[in-house]
Amino acid sequence: MTDKRRLYILLATTLSSFLTPFMGSAVNVALPNMAKDLSMTALSLSWVASSFILAAAITLVPLGRLADIYGRKRIFLYGAIIFTLASFLCIWSGTQSFLIFSRVIQGIGGAMIFGTGTAMLISAYPVGERGKILGINLAGVYTGLTIGPFIGGLLTEHLGWRYIFLFTVILGIFIIAIVTFMIKEEWSEAKDEDFDIIGSLLYAVALFAIMYGFSLLPAWRAGFLIGIGVFCLFFFIRQQLTRPFPLLDIRLFLDNKVFAFSNLAALINYCATFAVTFLLSLYLQHIKMLTPSQTGIILVAEPVVQAFFSPFAGRLSDRFEPQIIASIGMALNVIGLIPLIFIHSDTGIYYIVSCLILLGIGFALFSSPNVNATMSAVGNKFFGVASATLATMRLTGQMFSMGITMLVFAVIIGNNPISQAGNILLLKSIQVIFFLLTIICFGGIFASAARGKVHR
To answer: How confident is the model at residue 452 (pLDDT cuts 50, 70, 90)?
Structure first.
């Protein structure tokens, strides 16, 4: 494969890596305006973010497996098309139900992109360049997170929140054009193997029941759904161990320590950090009374640092053990979260920005070394599933992060609009959530350190 072809693959996957975090971070800034336009409560507003994550999480591994069998470029292209069409639907959402439905379709398209993008990059580039390329790709993620709050704030304040989705439609069309006309290669190392339909259904039901049930806590239905999810997960694992061509090779977790603990560390890291932007967006606009654009400028601090340090962290992981670098990154995340537990109505903006900078450095040092370790721990045949599994851990962690947020909101605020909750209850909720996220992140240091060595 020529260097020019590799660059097109890097461009398409990096733009897609930019697209979804841009949309997510821009939408976070627009949430108060969405709530006002569509009369949404605190809990229904949380589902604007959670519906996308849940839909993506339950379809990622099956779609990653389909990509290994039928072609990663093909599934990536279909995902970009579905994501773009769903973004168009979001523009025309007139009710909260239709907006959440459109976000579900977006999540499925996003899963097709998440489950194939990293695998395409790993397939195209040699082993010695993986850390560097993954660092560049993750810089696209953080650039999206950087630009998202700022552009999202400007668009929301001056044109309306629907223009955020118009921006994603335009970028989605550009990605579709690159993949269609510039990338000719296809990767399908498992093309002679069967797709496990029964396993896919069991997996989807198990993950949906657990994650949706978690979001319903403390209602009695939550325990019932979580129980069903655990039951289905148990049978899924048993079924996978007996299949000649499993959806998810469970032995990757049982026999591969690096793969197992890298995925666990990713799950914990995203669970501990994803809700930060959501919470600070509410804090800055409802308690500090800042405008969407002012909020976006402040929230930009974390992803700017992430974008700057991520390629550097990726190169480091090509030379030194990802285990060490990622664990240092997780520890910095803990240090960045602790001060946020103590924020109050008079907390200074510089205090918030300092915490975001620490989180940005920590996240950059964790992410690309962790991805490098995960993908380097498996053979070519499993790149699609490994990429999808890692993305599932990311999205499941994000869903749990929002689940914790919704649970605390339900207990402290109840099913009331945020505007009626009062600053005292909202601030108390935010402080409790940051405390819980800090405890979770501290446990992640040990998961990251336990993975073992990648470089021999």
So the answer is: low
Same domain, yes or no: 110 and 203 = no
Inter-residue contact 27 to 277 (CB < 8 Å): no
Q: What angle do CA 419, 357, 136 make, to 5 degrees?
A: 110
* Helix-helix angle 130-158:301-319, to 10 degrees: 170
Between CA 292 and CA 275 the distance in angstroms is: 18
Domain end among 246, 261, 278: 246
Domain for residue 456, yes or no?
A: no
Looking at residue 120, its pLDDT comes to: 84
Specify the number of domains making up the chain.
Answer: 2
**pLDDT at residue 416 in the model:** 62
pLDDT of residue 341 exceeding 80, the answer is: yes
- Return the C-alpha torsion angle 208, 209, 215, 218, nearest 10: 180
- Domain span including residue 202: 196-246
**What span, in angstroms and rounded, lies between the C-alpha atoms of 299 and 348?**
14
Based on the domain organization, do 291 and 228 belong to the same domain?
no
Residues ≥6 apart with Cβ < 8 Å to 223:
213
> In terms of Cα–Cα distance, which of 147, 161, 163 is closest to 31?
161
